[in-house]
Design goal:
With about 550 residues, the chain is α/β, with parallel strands linked by helices. The protein has 14 helices and 18 strands. Strand 13 and strand 14 form a beta hairpin.
Length: about 550
């Protein structure tokens, strides 16, 4: 048996199962803090805010990609998996950040993007130069086209960003890209691809990284046999037979990853971004594979008691079945912020709403924030891990009115300017009440911020006991005291109420309705909003002990 590897940097407290009930804070590096004054967030900026993140009370930080990238897709087009983008810093800067995080007992998770590289990756440039049939092209999915002279795409597969999933190169062949043309898909049946990514896992683990978030984990294995069959990611079968997504062969890849992650003491954690049917999502979370998989059910759910109860019941049962723990998410870098979703009428098409610059239908900002605070407290009381997205602790809403000429998301161009995309949740967050970027940095940021951002900045909310920032701080501190084990017992309180008990009598009660209900007995630990005399107001959560 080999001796576990010793990383360069480790947290002060070691716990192999830290991830099972961790609160993880997602940092989108380019929009978090700008230390060098170029309008783009950077690694040194994140380091400068580590004390803030530690005081917030989270357990771990997840960094979206900070690797060299042409930014065709916000950093998810990676040109070098074992370096830091020079615009964001250096490996020395990353090591300094990692040490600072570990000194504050914060674990660090980094993004891995294995489905595709950037078209500027040295492998893809070599593939273009080498030509058809070469070993260099075998690392990617190159195919001859259809039609009389190969002038048509090999199949009718569609990119997630719109348009064909195939792009033709000058010598006539086509390459597959499930996302932007600048993101060519790797061929994971190639042993060289598998070996190289395992070395990438070791590279970051050796530096002291505590875990990995795996982008598009369900997309690596593909059936490229002809004739090509149709694919529909929104209606995946339960037998793993779609040609592009959630195929059974993908689990052999992640079993190999688990062997690498277990070379370390403690073993490295991992969580899959796997948009797969719920019964199959648990496969990625098995102890022999990544250990956890994101549950995105609440990202698409209305603020409704029955829907929340069903989602929580289903996912806690699946977690028990897989041996993993549940993961709970309300916002991330790919969706409209939940404070905004909850303030729009049920059923609102958020893509269409963004195209009106957020004017139609009207957003009820106060109601959205009230519901967001209630939903967050409910999540933090659940067993398992909770993933928070930067700025939600400030109650930030989506920024829907970004001028068209400032949009960066490839969805905007790939859909013929019919879908704005995800820039509205990626706007740099505000730290101060005023300034050219509200404290993000000394100059205007790479994405424009709303004019009223100062009122919801860290500086504005820090000293306000009723602010969303201080609600998060209080909830995370209480959770750290109260959270123990993974048992959950449902309580019957009312039709519009979701209530459950944890250990030692800790109860979470959420009134999803608009009318107040009787406040259950017990001492109040914390509430998401003001409580009435003996009643729990609508759209409010209370913790009782």
């Amino acid at each position: 048996m080999s001796t576990p590897r010793t990383p360069a940097s480790t947290p002060r407290t070691a716990d192999a199962d830290w991830w099972r009930d961790a609160v993880v804070y997602q940092v989108y590096p380019r929009s978090f803090a700008d230390a060098d004054g170029d309008g783009l967030g950077d690694v040194a900026g994140i380091t400068s805010r580590v004390p803030y993140l530690a005081s917030l009370g989270v357990d771990a930080l997840w960094l979206s990609p900070f690797f060299p990238s042409p930014l065709a897709d916000g950093g998810y087009d990676v040109a070098d998996y074992r370096a830091v983008d020079p615009r964001l810093g250096t490996l020395d800067d990353f090591d300094a950040f990692l040490r600072a995080a570990h000194e504050h007992d914060l674990r660090v998770i980094v993004d891995v993007v294995p489905n595709h590289t950037s078209d500027q990756h040295e492998w893809f440039r070599a593939a273009l130069a080498a030509g058809p049939g070469s070993p260099e092209r075998a690392r990617y999915v190159f195919r001859d086209g259809a039609g009389v002279s190969g002038e048509l795409p090999p199949s009718d597969w569609v990119s997630n960003f719109g348009g064909s999933a195939w792009t033709r190169v000058p010598d006539g062949q086509w390459y597959l890209h499930l996302f932007a043309p600048e993101q060519p898909d790797l061929d994971w049946s190639n042993p060289e691809v598998r070996a190289d990514f395992e070395e990438t896992l070791r590279f970051w683990s050796d530096r002291g990284v505590d875990g990995f978030r795996v982008d598009v984990a369900h997309g690596l294995a593909k059936d490229l046999s002809t004739p090509y069959r149709p694919s529909d990611e929104k209606a995946l079968p339960l037998d793993g037979s779609d040609p592009l997504y959630d195929r059974d062969e993908v689990h052999e890849i992640f079993q190999g990853w688990r062997r690498v992650l277990d070379e370390y003491d403690p073993p490295r954690a991992a969580v899959a971004e796997a948009w797969a049917p719920a019964p199959r999502r648990v496969l990625y979370a098995r102890p022999t594979e990544l250990g956890q998989a994101f549950n995105f059910d609440l990202l698409e759910a209305p603020f409704d008691a029955d829907v929340f109860r069903t989602i929580v019941s289903r996912n806690t049962a699946m977690a028990e079945e897989s041996g993993a723990s549940s993961t709970w998410v309300l916002s991330n870098h790919d969706v409209v912020r939940h404070a905004t979703r909850y303030g729009l009428p049920d059923g609102t098409d958020t893509d269409a709403w963004l195209m009106t610059d957020g004017t139609t239908p009207a957003l009820d900002r106060a109601r959205g924030l009230r519901r967001a605070r209630a939903a967050t407290m409910l999540l933090l009381a659940l067993p398992g891990s909770t993933y928070l997205y930067q700025g939600e602790e400030l109650g930030l809403h989506e920024a829907p009115a970004i001028p068209h000429d400032r949009l960066q998301d490839p969805k905007w161009t790939r859909t013929g300017h019919t879908v704005k995309g995800r820039d509205g949740c990626r706007v740099p967050i505000p730290w101060t009440l005023s300034g050219p970027s509200f404290g993000f940095g000394p100059v205007a940021p790479h994405l424009p911020q709303p004019a009223d951002f100062g009122a919801v900045s860290v500086g504005a909310e820090d000293g306000d006991p009723s602010s969303t920032l201080n609600l998060y701080r209080s909830a995370l501190a209480a959770r750290a005291r109260l959270q123990e084990g993974e048992q959950l017992d449902w309580l019957e309180v009312g039709a519009d109420v979701v209530a459950f008990a944890r250990h030692d009598g800790w109860r979470s009660v959420t009134n999803f309705g608009t009318e107040p209900v009787a406040l259950p007995s017990g001492s109040v630990v914390l509430a998401s909003g003001p409580l009435g005399d003996g009643v729990l107001p609508g759209e409010t959560t209370v913790w009782l002990a």
